[in-house]
């Protein structure tokens, strides 16, 4: 593609790298491997694996829910069904394989960004530093396994296609509809890609056909136009209780990193000697606004910076800090630095290899491993009101024998009134115990970090059967499961264990 061919530096990637460049490449590869391999279990991972396993077991995408007693029999829109099927298949080969798969996807994004910057004229050091430094504030996003990772890759490819067309190579435009047809079945982030095409068509009206073709291609999903209705409705759904859906706070470390990168890109656009594309500038502005809508969109901003601002940043860098060749003392220092680069790369690769042992559970969040293992050992089959972040953890280990009140599927399955009622229950506000009346669950598993724990202790008709440092398990007094759980809890240690990802 043109964006991988034009504007290469004098010592471009098609020329064998010198020892200095090779040592830098090794160091950056080590950094990327470590950043991409670190993996933690987020609250939705359990559901992604479980729902994917169900897809393979039943062979059905459209199906009724049987994990929540509040929505039993209701058909839900699983807009990430293909991602979950892939995750479940890879996980069946072992947790380490799933980590490797996630790391490979994340690494491919970094590598493609690096290669693009090299082809646009940045040296090995500058391309590697720009990729590394731009990811530093947002590296935590690489640590979780979620369908969003497919959106990062496909969003970057969409930007590449636009960039290539802006530079006269339009044969890749025909691949865009196929890309969006796949994307619509992997993750709802395809809306961000459609947004980029829309902005582009504002300046290039002749490209409106591509926008329409890509929108039409997204209808190739199990829900048809229903997927669009669902996503447009949920895009307006308030998510004040979920941190990653809040605007990026500029006073935080990621916020400071965002501002620094923003300033770097603005300086690049202002002082670059290269021709500036109006379309590229507009699209970069579009990606720059995304983190201000939600923290989880931060990497879209980084990808836009690489594609549309990277070459301008590199030009300003070269203009004011030219990179000269080694001579004398500098050459000797470089020889020592090469050795340090190779040593650092080796250390990083060793550290990265340790990350493939398991998917780590790192509190917070504190998962109720003790209570869940108690319920599993007792063979309980009942409905249970549960803390929101624990819903998919519980249904992975205990469902559908134990049906939950709420889990991370949120607006894909639950009505807004039910969702708000469950949040009131967790926070212990308003008619917090209305959630215990809806569906009449026999059990309630709550976090000790929230007011509902103390309220449940004082709630008539409920008995605390188990508690540990993080959770409390309450049972209705008339439930047949009360005495077996009390007896089993007395036999067990109160200190919960945290197995590797619970698998």
Q: How would you portray this structure in words?
A:
With 503 residues, the protein is mostly helical. The protein has two domains: 2-320, no CATH class; 369-502, D-Maltodextrin-Binding Protein, domain 2, CATH 3.40.190. Helix content is 55%, strand content 5%. The protein has helices at residues 19-37, 45-58, 81-92, 95-119, 124-135, 148-166, 176-186, 190-203, 208-217, 225-235, 253-271, 278-289, 298-320, 329-354, 369-378, 391-398, 416-427, 434-437, 452-457, 482-491; strands spanning 383-386, 403-404, 443-447, 462-467, 471-476. A five-stranded mixed beta sheet has the order 2-1-3-5-4. Strand 1 (383-386), helix 16 and strand 2 (403-404) form a beta-alpha-beta unit. The two termini are 43 Å apart. The model is unreliable at 1-14 and 496-502 (pLDDT under 50).
What's the short story on this structure?
The chain is mainly α and 503 residues long.
* Form type: globular
The poorly predicted ranges are 1-14, 496-502
Question: For the residues shown, what is the average pLDDT?
Answer: 88
Share of helical residues: 55-70%
Strand content: under 5%
- Biggest sheet strand order reads 2-1-3-5-4
Task: Please provide the count of β strands.
Answer: 5
- Domain count: the total is 2
Largest sheet: 5 strands, mixed
Helical run tally: 20
Oligomer: single chain
Order of helices and strands: HHHHHHHHHHHHHHHEHEHHEHEEH
Q: Tell me the distance between the termini.
A: 43 Å
Question: Radius of gyration from the CA trace?
Answer: 26 Å
